[in-house]
Amino acid sequence: MINLNTKSIVGDLFTLNPWWGSDNLLFTKKYSFYRDLFDEFLDRVVNRDLITSLVGLRRVGKSTMIQQTIYKLIENGVNPKSILYFLFEDITAKNVDLSDYLRKIIDYQINQNPKEKIYIFLDEIQYINGWNSVLKRYFDIYPQIKFIVSGSSSLFINTESKESLAGRIQELILRPMSYGEYLRMTDKDNTEMHFMEYLSWGEFPYLEKLINWEEKKEYINDFVFKKVVENDLPKYRKIYGSEIVNMLNILMAYSGQTIEIQNFASDLGIAQNTTREYLSLLEKTHLISQVFNMGIGFRTRSVRQRKIYLTSVNASVLHNYQGLMSESWQRNIGNIIETFVYNHLVRKNQGEVSFWRQRQIKEVDFINLLTESKLPIEVKYQNEIKKQDLENLLYYCKKEKLNKAVIITKNEDATREIEGVKIEFKSARNLLN
Fold this sequence. Notes:
Blueprint: H1 6-16, H2 38-47, E1 51-55, H3 62-75, E2 83-87, H4 98-112, E3 118-123, H5 131-141, E4 145-151, H6 159-164, E5 169-173, H7 179-186, H8 192-201, H9 213-236, H10 241-253, E6 257-259, H11 261-268, H12 272-284, E7 288-292, E8 306-310, H13 313-320, H14 327-331, H15 333-348, E9 352-358, E10 362-369, E11 374-380, H16 391-400, E12 404-409, E13 414-418, E14 421-427
């Protein structure tokens, strides 16, 4: 174990904090594109005393948002030397006590700025065992410190981490880019072809720079999804790598597939409790989402039928198809759009999303559980919508005494009243946010 000393730590810090130099204003950077979440994130950094955490999939832009926030603080007059940034992903290769390293970083910044508010940005902090206990101590003793932490996976996979910071931390999730963000970033118009491009590679900023389909596929498979189950998760939990990798491969092969724990566990050849645990880990690390069937009465979530969606439509498309608008792509466009719509609803964060299925016969794709009502949503991405395409939706509305519903379409934007139900027809590519 290498003995830590202030000199080596200071060298690391000056490398990662160039704004500490004499020409610190040169390091303020003008950005032409900010994520939709940026204003809320900046507000929490500036105006909230609690620890701010930013989590999400790898490569969605968390580190970029942190850098943008630092530059914005400097532009707004914050002393550059009161802002510390550290990335822990690379430091794990050093043979040092990482918890001690974290404490020494914080102590150094306090000593350098003993009388003013300081901002400490800790990127990929999940690599530090016991990070939560370290931050809890400093948070309770030094009210002038504003901590901002980020992680590619959930920071709270270990329950004790969440419990120890209860009441001290607020979490924000940075999800893959929306279609509207993609259009703003690339300065493209909202056309059908640009929408198809977004579905294939528009959720991750770097994918636009890669030229061919195979490069994009490798980027998503190897550096985003597989990196989590093969590298990250084994560091947090004792898991059998091949089992959870096999599970993820099955789920990636068909986003939106319906599973029941008993049958799914049998197919995988693992115990039902292990299956539930692995699904929970994949969900906590933002790779998948579990959507539960409202049509099975009061059965608990642990046994209820569920659909599994990938949190990235790009991951589904690049994993399963051979190219943009290929034959397999066109054959499965309905499933692609359904995954897109699900993630759009989650991104809007206007209530829990479920689905409804009755006796394997009648089904409604999504039920958005709003504060005082339910909004049924069906995906019908086709050139013409016929009356029989609406039967399940109208049946559910009548059953639940609902007078509003939504159909996600290929082309149409209109509102019509059918059998006493006000149905809003929305074109998928006009779901921008």
